[in-house]
Amino acid sequence: MKPDDPRLSNLHDIRKNIDAVDAQILRLLNLRFEYALQTRRFKAQGEDPEREEAVLRTARRRAGRLAGPEFAARIYEAILGESKALQKKDLKLAGFQGEPGAYSEAAVEAWNPAWVPVACREFGEVFEGVRQGRLDYGVIPVENSLEGPVTAANEMLIETDLSIVGGVRLPIHHCLLARPETDYREIRAVYSHPMALAQCRGFLARNGLEPRMVYDTAGAARKVAEDLSRTAAAIADERCAELYDLEILKADIEDHPSNATRFVVLAREPEEGDGDKCSIVFAVPDKAGALISLLKIFAEADINLTRIESRPLRKTPGQIAFLLDFQGSPRDGTVAAVLENVNRHSAMSRFLGCYKEIRP
Fold this sequence. Notes:
Elements: H1 6-39, H2 49-62, H3 64-67, H4 69-87, E1 93-97, H5 103-111, E2 116-120, H6 123-132, E3 137-144, E4 148-149, H7 151-159, E5 163-171, E6 175-178, E7 189-192, H8 194-199, H9 201-206, E8 210-213, H10 217-226, E9 232-236, H11 239-243, E10 247-251, E11 260-267, E12 277-285, H12 290-300, E13 305-312, E14 319-327, H13 333-345, E15 348-355, E16 357-358
Parallel strand pairs: 1-2, 1-3, 5-16, 7-8, 7-9
Antiparallel strand pairs: 3-4, 3-11, 5-11, 6-9, 6-10, 12-14, 12-15, 13-14
Helix pairs in contact: 1-4, 2-4
């Protein structure tokens, strides 16, 4: 065909559609492997011939005219074989809130690249997955350097019986992403998580862009890639450009280059190690001086507090719960004495964990 042949344009469009379908196939394939790894936790043995045969029968029945039943069966035989191979490995699953490409997934990989990140729709799925044993760990954001605490995550952290076993302070650099060949001048709406939109408030205002809230930054990228017109863009991590076949229109659009989010790593049980940061939750009656008297215990012991957040204690109306982080370790006699003193003088207290925090 000649360069000016109109069929070239049609071929280009069809190939772009094929690329988009391929990206979806690979995302779904990885998701299926994640589910296979989770099911291993609930099976007495790795092999389940009856289940495998049922999967193959279903694949043949649903194959459709072009794929055909035998081709579909061969594909699923390969998928089942790879699933069983993965199940035999000692892979650790770490849940995070959001879609693949979310900053929370990057935090999982920063803490331990050998872990398998597992996407969860809500924070509650992360907490419950760890509690039930479907997940080995959970990684959740707790505060941002520009916008402050992540309220929903902190509320669950106050109520949970899980332990904090690690921390990650991750630099956050946002990109403006859009579908390929989008004209920047035509963009009207920008989709992202409310925290990300707030961290880019200045950029949005300067460019006259309307912020639209969705539950996750990577989810916004996926939405723009799959559902929306060329007048929409997303704010997300640069990795989402590759994952969702988007173009980076502008990088580093956050309002301040120091933008960072702090994440904590959750587990069912505390882990041994030489941590140097501690987190506790305690409750005090809602009356004057109650908090000051408890904080004075830390001040008199010369312990450096690095964070304090307050939330009403839902299970006990009239009491205020506090999340408090400080430098130190309960192996230190002074710290151990402070924790015992806090426990005596608070309406409720729970030690969440002693851990190391990394800054990749």
